Amino acid sequence: MKILVTGGAGFIGSNVVDAYIEAGHDVVVVDLPTCRRENVHPKAKLYLADIRSKDLADIFAEERPDVVNHHAAQKSVPKSVQDPELDADVNILGLLNILQNSVRVGVQKVIFISSGGALSGDSSIVPTPEDIDPIMISPYAISKYVSEKYLYFYHVTHGLRYTSLRYANVYGPRQVPEGESGVVPIFMANLLDGRPSTLRSYADMPRGTTRDYVYVGDVARANVLALDKGDNQALNIGSGIELYIEDIYHAMEDVVGVQIPLIRASERVGDVRRSVLDCTRAKRELGWEPRTDLREGLRKTYEYFRQA
Ligand SMILES: NC(=O)c1ccc[n+]([C@@H]2O[C@H](COP(=O)([O-])OP(=O)(O)OC[C@H]3O[C@@H](n4cnc5c(N)ncnc54)[C@H](O)[C@@H]3O)[C@@H](O)[C@H]2O)c1
Fold first, then answer.
1. How much distance in Å is there from the Cα of 257 to the middle of ligand 1?
2. Chain centroid to CA 173: how far?
3. In terms of pTM, does the model score above 0.85?
């Protein structure tokens, strides 16, 4: 099968490309000229282009992929709050450019990447299933939600099949320790450099907020299974395990073999207090379950950061 992966030089997208190539597929990557090319598997063909650009039409016409896997995004929640127009431009108009070109060249299926955490907000149902009324507290969440509505429209109108994979907090090799990337790479970089990390928490939640952490290798496997399963629906992809941020930090201290006390600070405005996904639908529809427990995932992440 020929698969076009947008954002295939990024953290998760590049791991998905590796899994597709390992499963014997032909892979074409579309990513920005500023992307991390070193992440792209040598057997994948790389096009440097913006998903919003007119160049996409030529790429689709030339490659005629069977499946499009869409990981490219404006992925920062705070940036979406500061600049909702940019967020909608990349995440909504970029998706429409992909969908229009998909219909034009006869793509069979689009695998779209959504966010379970962003769409559940502070839901009172924990673990949160897919069919809650989403509470959206950022333009990022709104753009992911609207994207799923467009996918449904293209399915009923043009017969384009889709699966929306709603990720929990993904961690693992190639994640970058910068502001928006979640705590694992930031804590890991600090522990390796002997620097203290900051735990932001609500006064009544001293161990921090809770999150659902899923290893990127397991996420990549869900993308392989979604090639021919789980059509026309949204599926949560997470561990289903609720962890306090402080507990993750201590697990990382064990893996790295150092102990550095945390600096405690007040919460970030808008931080969701509890977040964990109910992933029973992915198990039923894809036959998918995470296989990598936190310790093993953190060990693999540590090996990557040590050698990077
Ligand atoms: N990291 C997580 O925990 C998480 C959780 C939920 C959802 N997601 C979603 O997963 C996807 C991948 O996230 P990631 O963490 O791997 O991010 P990432 O930044 O590592 O990867 C995104 C890639 O998309 C590319 N890109 C961005 N804008 C583009 C554009 N206009 N045209 C072409 N390419 C563009 C970037 O260059 C980058 O290589 C995103 O859709 C994100 O919203 C991530």
1. 31
2. 13
3. yes
